[in-house]
From TrEMBL, chain A:
Residues 1-235, 241-491 form the ABC transporter domain. It is a peripheral membrane protein. The keyword RNA-binding does not apply. Keywords: ATP-binding, Cell membrane, Membrane, Nucleotide-binding, Repeat, Sugar transport, Translocase, Transport. GO terms for molecular function: ATP binding; ATP hydrolysis activity. One of its GO terms (cellular component) is plasma membrane. The keyword Nucleotide-binding applies. This is ATP-binding cassette domain-containing protein. InterPro entries: AAA+_ATPase, ABC_carbohydrate_import_ATPase, ABC_transporter-like_ATP-bd, ABC_transporter-like_CS, P-loop_NTPase.
TrEMBL record, chains C, D:
Keywords: Cell membrane, Membrane, Transmembrane, Transmembrane helix. One of its GO terms (molecular function) is transmembrane transporter activity. InterPro entries: ABC_transp_permease (IPR001851). It comes from Paracoccus limosus. This is ABC transporter permease. The keyword Transmembrane applies. It is found in: Cell membrane. One of its GO terms (cellular component) is plasma membrane. It is a multi-pass membrane protein.
């Protein structure tokens, strides 16, 4: 790709960017949120047409007018935002447009399911190909997207933050597949904000900043620190978690025997004011379910929730928020944002009551002010607070959801994968923010599939497996100890 | 032991006219000691709905059926079924082709609206532009009333020009808007004929809203038309005898079910009424509110 | 509905103010066309008739715009309008109450019916299409039952027809006697535009249509707001009921079916999306005006009724297509 | 990695088959209720007339189910049905052609009209509501224009009424003379169910309704498939046109308006979501049956027509509510 240029209204997203991918290499593309990574890849995959520049494959210039043209050239992509048909099954999603056919336009479902099962087996994913996608967690949906891209057997494979929702075990699985593909000569473009991954998997690294190409370097010979410096233009300190003394702190949230079907089994724990409780576990361990149950999104069948020592009846998110609980969902697109509305409206969504007078009028100047404050505080990259959220880059959308809950100012905050898709710099800032919030007396639960994140933030670490709370560990625990609890099955079989 | 039961299938039930028919039928039912049911589709296009109603009526095994057919040809197979089951059929409001109905109680709509045309010509002195606001382009009554009126004008009054024929589905508001558009397009218009109650009142409203001074002739009755005729904003109207239609239909049905002879044609008549005769007992008896 | 590949729509926002003006263009073209085709069209009287003809449909359309923005639909507005008119008749003519109580009866009945629909949708989770279809049938039947299928006339109520047909403006500006019905339409439109643009209720209306689950998970009592929106739309139906019964000086129990389709068509022509989250009252007004200009113009030109239908169908498609082209062209 | 996920999904899937059976329950309750209320209801003749009454609406509903699953809507099906009947009349009665050509005319006309709607939706990007509203008006007008507003009778075509009213089964099983129209309904339903469940076209129908953008990003020519679906639905409208004209032995040009609402209602009562991506033909059939059992039953009970409307409205809401409760209960 040479001299690629792209404008959006109010944004010069790509400024004459050049990019080169060799066959059989893993090329990492890095940059802050909103740097233009996804846009560049969407141009390569035919979603957007560039305003200027050329694309060459094997030395010959090609025109990529639409996704089909890109596919025909052997380019496969895993989009940052999941693009799945929720009412269809996993297998149907993977083979859409390329269904194995029988006579009369019939689909060979058996073969389709078998092929899917084969891909899943290769990915070590235990999932029935006939499962409807709508019933899968974000992580599994992500796995479906990966399976779909693999099924194309592309020459060039673009992966835009494929691991944002995955945990270590799955990432390891994915990496072995990537290496295998690379050895087969596939060129892979890999976008991620997880620095350790970049070092582990990539051969070369291209860094972008503000829509421009900064540098392309060799992965093996470049230090992470200098890559980060190229990305953000400044140094980021690495801090260790400091566990405050909470012996005297009152309990903010207590959960007793929370149960729902087979998803949540008799879960009890308590959370103190000023404490950050991390939740670790494998995909499908039930952490999200637990959060949703506490928040009243899908109320539990049994058990008790006490807030500041008093039993609370939480049958809906409305009850929860009134009781001072906030919940940031792992699925920002479906559960976090009104994509068609602007940044200001989204940030204010949970706090409108505060900005309403007796006639029901909204205090727009007030809303504008808080929206702009949060845009500045979280460095949300947007042309303005009236930009529709769907036009923001993935990481910036995530920041908008965080801003929504910061503005609401809840006593108890449950953050489910809060840094999904957020760049290193911003991540450090958010960690800071959470620590500050805790220091200011908030009680915080952080659910994360990123072990370093859990270790970096948590004052205590709760581990779940198969809907049970298998243990709560102190801050300085080893990953080994966590993994043991995360795989501790009932009856001891692993 | 069984009380006799007569099923009436009409062309509608929501309009005043049909309610008056029903009233007559109910009265006959009470007088003669028989059960009467009355059903009809929402509007006069729904031929197949009427078919389903007839089927449901047949399932109830009535002593006789009264039918105001939306399309008599289309209903023939079912009427044959009735015939085979020895259920006599009385046609009302409009006729049914063939010899299946043992009697027909109806108004001659062609003649009735020809009378309206004569009256219109009389008020206009035999010349001028006029328009028709019809209630349906496709139903038999709609077509008959339009054509009866237009043909009479064409044949007898060469100096009268009909400049527009529009259809408002018998919806008052729609007919009002139509009238206003006609008046706007033709400021020199002298008269408008509305072919049923809803159309006539719509015309009246339109004329009133535009502040026009023209001859309005209506059809059927109802409170608003009667008031308008009394205060002079409507020149007059044709009325049928809906109560009589209902009454005679049930009467004939009962007679036929008992195997008695019934007259083949029962003409329930139509009348012109205006300010001068509206309170005449004979007229007042066939008007409804 | 991913946010990938939305290049097509990316200019929407910046273009949106401009877009409204451009939707207006379709209307202008129609008016200009009819004016050229017939000298009778662009006459003050005829223009006033068109405005008057827009009033009932316009008010209904404004009300249902709110519901459509939430991603719902209301099929009952036509028969609900009739039912509110009937209840006004019951209060005024049968009950002999003073006019303000009649007005209250119309708006109150509408709001109550709307609240029922809203409850069915929000609490019982019945799809809006079914809940309001059921409501439409129920109200249609009830109007006939309450009145005994006979119209109720408002002859006993002094000045009832003035609600829609009088002209406050005409008293001041005799040359331009805009009927009160039109003023009421603009007042209702202004009020709803204000609610949508400036109040919490409006904000939630858009938010519900945009992503209801996300709003619920923000701790908003979505059920309650949704019920409020349906109730408000019902109240507005009540105003339409007042307008139509004032024009007809009677409550006609058989009328109303089919009015919902016309109102929804006006809303969609005005650019509001049936999938929710997007819409403007100005657009709805323009949509309603396009419909009545079209109907009136074709009648003034004395086009045969069956051709009127054909031409209306074609022009509706063309107008929306033109709008579509402009949107695509505007980036 | 656990297999909890798998277990749970299996429970879900088996729940969905069960669910359809449960939707069936509403129908059973209705039939049982009416049978108890009147001995006349559960008679072979009456059951056959209910089935016959379902045939036209059922075929329309089956056709529009496909479109609704794509997330679209088709308001033109009622008038399209009429227009196809008219064209058959033109070919058979006016043109004196043999029956097969008439059948071809109906299906071909329907498919062509559907293709036009589909093109407007897919290529011109006109919202389905508007495209098919326009189509509805155009076809309504055209039917009147072509026929000169008078019905065309099929008296010249031997055996035309047998298409719907004859009984192939009756010849073999005289005790149970199921009319051909009903067989045709079941055949069409079977065909469409097969298409939806087994073929690529069916797959894209669901996929389009589920996430059109994602389908496009997968390199599928979404426009072409969408047009095919509208054309197919149009062809099915043509079959409905044959059925209704065969029942009436005539093409009635004014008929048709309002049939779309009834068909769409059947689809939604049958559990298909108006927002697309979800739906079954079996559900649509049950929905259509619920509607005609309701109508027939109330008539057999001699309920006054205005009360019929009220009761129908209430029962539709209750039936869907019961369905809703069951779904919520089932997990
Ligand atoms: N469709 C669009 N319309 C308007 N602006 C857009 C659009 N898509 C992207 N942008 C803008 O272009 C810039 C680059 O976005 P892009 O999605 O490429 O960022 P990114 O590098 O992938 O970020 P992230 O790490 O957060 O995913 C951002 O400022 C974004 O707001
Ligand atoms: N909305 C949903 N409906 C039905 N099943 C769901 C839903 N969301 C998740 N699941 C399933 O429930 C199980 C528990 O998932 P959950 O999301 O609670 O796990 P988790 O511990 O948060 O893990 P992760 O978020 O890392 O996947 C998984 O098998 C998942 O597929
Ligand atoms: Mg990105
Ligand atoms: Mg989770």
């Amino acid at each position: 790709m040479q001299g690629i240029d792209k404008h959006f209204p109010g944004v010069h997203a790509l400024k004459s960017v050049g990019f080169e991918l060799r066959a059989g290499e893993v090329h990492a593309l890095m940059g802050e949120n909103g740097a233009g990574k996804s846009t560049l890849m969407k141009i390569l995959s035919g979603v957007y047409r560039p305003d200027g520049g050329r694309i060459l494959i094997d030395g010959a210039e090609v025109q990529i007018a639409d996704p089909r043209a890109s596919q025909a050239l052997g380019i496969g992509i895993i989009h940052q935002e999941l693009a799945l048909m929720r009412d269809l099954t996993a297998a149907q999603n993977i083979w859409i447009g390329r269904e194995p056919r029988l006579s009369l336009g019939r689909i060979d479902e058996a073969r389709q399911n078998a092929d899917t099962a084969a891909i899943f087996a290769r990915m070590n994913l235990r999932l029935d190909p006939r499962t409807p996608v709508a019933s899968l967690s974000i992580a599994r949906q992500q796995m479906i997207e990966i399976a779909k891209a693999l099924s194309y057997r592309p020459r060039v494979l673009i992966m835009d933050e494929p691991t944002a929702a995955l945990n270590d075990a799955e990432i390891a699985e994915l990496f072995s597949i990537i290496r295998q593909l690379r050895d087969e000569g596939v060129g892979i473009i890999y976008i991620s904000h997880k620095m350790d991954e970049i070092k582990r998997i990539s051969d070369r690294i291209t860094v972008m900043r503000d829509g421009a190409h900064v540098a392309t370097v060799d992965a093996a010979t470049t230090a992470i620190g200098s890559i980060i410096a190229m990305m953000v233009g400044r140094e980021i300190g690495d801090e260790q978690v400091v566990v405050p003394d909470l012996a005297q702190a009152p309990v903010a949230l207590e959960v007793r025997g929370l149960t729902r079907g087979t998803e949540l089994r008799d879960i009890s724990f308590s959370l103190k004011k000023g404490e950050i409780l991390g939740f670790a576990g494998l995909m499908g361990a039930g952490r999200t379910e637990l959060a949703r149950a506490i928040f009243g999104a899908e109320p539990a069948d049994g058990g008790e929730i006490l807030i500041h020592g008093r039993p609370a009846r939480i049958r809906s998110p409305h009850d929860a928020v009134r009781a001072g609980i906030g919940y940031l969902s792992e699925d920002r697109k479906h559960y976090g944002l009104a994509l068609g509305m602007d940044v200001r409206a989204n940030i204010a969504m949970a706090s409108l009551a505060r900005f309403t007078d007796r006639l029901g009028r909204l205090d727009e100047p007030g809303l504008r002010k808080v929206a702009r404050d949060h845009i500045a505080r979280l460095r949300i990259r947007t042309p303005g607070d009236r930009q529709e959220v769907r036009f923001l880059s993935g990481g910036n959308q995530q920041k908008v959801v965080i801003a929504k809950w910061l503005l609401r100012d809840c006593d108890i905050l449950i953050f489910d994968e809060p840094t999904r898709g957020i760049d290193v710099g911003a991540k450090a800032e958010i960690y800071h923010l959470l620590t500050d919030l805790a220091a200011a007396g908030k009680a915080i639960i952080v659910i994360s599939s990123e072990m370093p994140e859990v270790l970096r933030l948590s004052h205590r670490i709760a581990v779940m497996c198969e809907g049970r709370l298998t243990g709560i560990l102190p801050a300085a625990s080893s990953q080994q100890a966590i993994m043991e609890l995360a795989t501790e099955r009932q009856g001891g079989t692993a | 032991q069984d009380k006799m039961y007569v099923a009436l299938i009409s062309k509608g039930f929501q309009h005043q006219f049909w309610q008056a028919v029903k009233q007559g039928a109910d009265k006959a039912g009470a007088d003669l000691g028989v059960d009467v049911s009355f059903d009809g589709p929402d509007n006069e296009t729904q031929v197949d709905k009427q078919m389903d109603m007839l089927a449901a009526a047949l399932a109830k095994k009535p002593s006789a059926i009264g039918l105001a057919a939306l399309d008599s040809q289309a209903l023939i197979p079912q009427l044959k079924q009735a015939q085979a089951a020895k259920i006599p059929v009385i046609a009302f409001d409009s006729g049914v082709e063939g010899d299946i109905p043992v009697a027909t109680a109806s108004t001659d709509n062609l003649a009735a609206s020809a009378l309206a045309a004569d009256k219109m010509a009389e008020f206009l002195g035999g010349e001028g532009k006029i328009a028709v606001v019809g209630h349906s382009q496709t139903s038999t009554t709609g077509i008959d009333r339009r054509d009866g009126f237009l043909n009479e004008i064409k044949e007898k009054y060469p100096k009268i020009e009909v400049i527009a024929t529009e259809y408002g589905d018998g919806d008052q508001l729609k007919s009002t808007e139509i009238t206003k558009a006609i008046l706007a397009a033709n400021p020199d218009i002298k008269g408008i004929f509305g072919t049923n109650e809803g159309s006539a009142i719509g015309v009246l409203n339109g004329v009133r809203e535009m502040g026009a001074k023209i001859v309005v002739i209506g059809f059927d009755s109802g409170r608003a038309q009667k008031d308008a005729i009394r205060d002079g904003s409507m020149a007059g109207a044709i009325t049928q005898n809906p109560v009589g239609i209902g009454y005679e239909t049930v009467k004939a049905a009962v007679a036929a079910a008992k195997g008695e002879a019934v007259p083949k044609q029962i003409d329930t008549g139509f009348y012109w009424y205006d300010k001068s005769n509206i309170d005449d007992p004979k007229i007042a008896a066939v008007l409804y509110d | 509905m991913t946010d990938i590949g939305i290049e097509r729509q990316e200019a929407r926002r910046s273009g949106s103010a401009q877009q409204k003006l451009l939707a207006f263009a379709s209307l202008i073209v129609l008016v200009a066309g009819f004016s050229l085709a017939s000298p009778r069209f662009f006459q003050i009287d005829n223009i006033l008739s068109i405005l008057q003809a827009t009033s009932v449909n316009g008010v209904l359309a404004v009300g249902v715009t709110m519901i459509i923005i939430t991603g719902g639909i209301d099929l009952s507005i036509g028969t609900m309008m009739t039912f509110t008119a009937v209840m006004t008749g019951v209060v005024l003519t049968w009950g002999g109450m003073p006019l303000p109580l009649g007005i209250l009866a119309a708006i109150g009945t509408g709001a109550a019916c709307g609240l029922i629909s809203g409850t069915l949708v929000a609490k019982a989770r019945i799809p809006p299409f079914i809940a309001t279809l059921g409501m439409m049938l129920v109200l249609k039947g009830l109007s006939l039952i309450v009145t005994g299928t006979k119209p109720i006339y408002f002859n006993g109520t002094e000045g009832y027809t003035l609600i829609s047909q009088g002209s406050v403006i005409g008293r001041m500006l005799p040359a331009f006697p805009v009927p009160n019905g039109v003023l009421i339409l603009f007042a209702v439109a202004g009020l709803v535009a204000w609610i949508l643009g400036r109040t919490v209720l409006g904000r939630y209306t858009f938010a519900l249509g945009s992503n209801e689950e996300a709003v619920r998970l923000s701790g908003v009592n979505t059920d309650r707001w949704k019920m409020a929106i349906y109730a408000l739309a019902g109240g507005i139906c009540g105003i339409a009921g007042l307008l139509i019964s004032s024009r007809l000086n009677s409550a006609q129990p058989a009328l109303g079916l089919g009015y919902e389709l016309e109102a929804i068509a006006a809303v969609v022509i005005g650019g509001t999306s049936l999938s929710g989250g997007r819409g403007t009252i100005l657009g709805t007004l323009i949509g309603a005006l396009i419909m009545s200009v079209l109907t009136n113009g074709l009648r003034v030109l004395s086009v045969a009724p069956e051709w009127q239908t054909v031409v209306t169908g074609v022009i509706i498609i063309v107008a929306v297509y033109a709008d579509q082209l402009r949107r695509r062209g505007s980036h």
